[in-house]
Amino acid sequence: MPNRRASAVWEGGLKGGKGTFKGESDAISGNYSFSSRFEEGSGSNPEELLAAAHAACVSMALAAQLDREVHAQAWPLDQADVAIAALRAGAVDGAAVLVPSHQVRALPGHA
Fold first, then answer.
1. Burial annotation 56-66 (CB, 10 A radius, 16+ → b, else e)
2. What average pLDDT does this structure show over 21-28?
3. What residue ranges do the domains of the chain occupy?
4. Rounded mean pLDDT of the chain?
5. Closest CA relative to residue 79, chosen from 110, 111, 50
6. % of residues, the chain, pLDDT over 70
7. CA–CA separation, 81 vs 91, rounded Å?
8. What are the angstrom distances between the C-alpha of 73 and each of 5, 12, 57, 63, 92?
9. pTM value surpassing 0.85
10. Residue 105 and residue 51: Cα distance in Å, rounded?
11. Which residue intervals of 45-106 are DSSP H helices?
12. Facing residues of 32 across strands?
């Protein structure tokens, strides 16, 4: 598999600053901030990006396994949740946790 790259730039202080990120393919990009990461502010955050990447990988792996074992058309619907512990004195109290959940739904006509 080829290596993939992304970049992120943060401007300003922690609480008042803002950041942008971009993937090398230009398929993903966005803004993030203290508020979008540690509160309910608008914009993306690193945990959301990790969750999306994890869900995409699990979905493809599940599709490959279904293709090998079931030989039926299926549509994997995956969701990954990432949580962080509360911020205390400028430090995260706990590490990010990935919690995958898997649902599979047969395509119409392939039940």
1. eebbeebbeeb
2. 94
3. 1-44, 45-111
4. 74
5. 50
6. 61
7. 21
8. 32, 49, 18, 9, 43
9. no
10. 21
11. 46-69
12. 19, 44
Pairwise CA distance, residues 19 & 32, whole Å = 5
Measure the CA–CA gap between 62 and 78, rounded to whole angstroms.
Answer: 9
Q: The tokens of 26 are what? A: 């230009």
37-82 confidence digits (pLDDT tens): 999 999 999 888 888 887 788 778 877 877 776 655 555 555 666 5
- The residues, any chain, with a CB within 8 Å of residue 90's CB and separated by 6 or more, are 14
Instruction: Give phi and psi for 4, each to the nearest 5.
Output: -120, 150
Token representation of residue 10: 């943060």
Contact at 8 Å (CB) between 90 and 109? Answer: no
Unique residue bearing structure tokens 């942008």:
20
Supply the pLDDT for residue 97.
42
Measured CA to CA, the distance from residue 105 to residue 111 in angstroms comes to 8
43: Cβ contacts below 8 Å, ≥ 6 apart = 30, 31, 32, 33, 35, 36
Burial class (CB in 10 A: 0-12, 13-18, 19+), 12: exposed
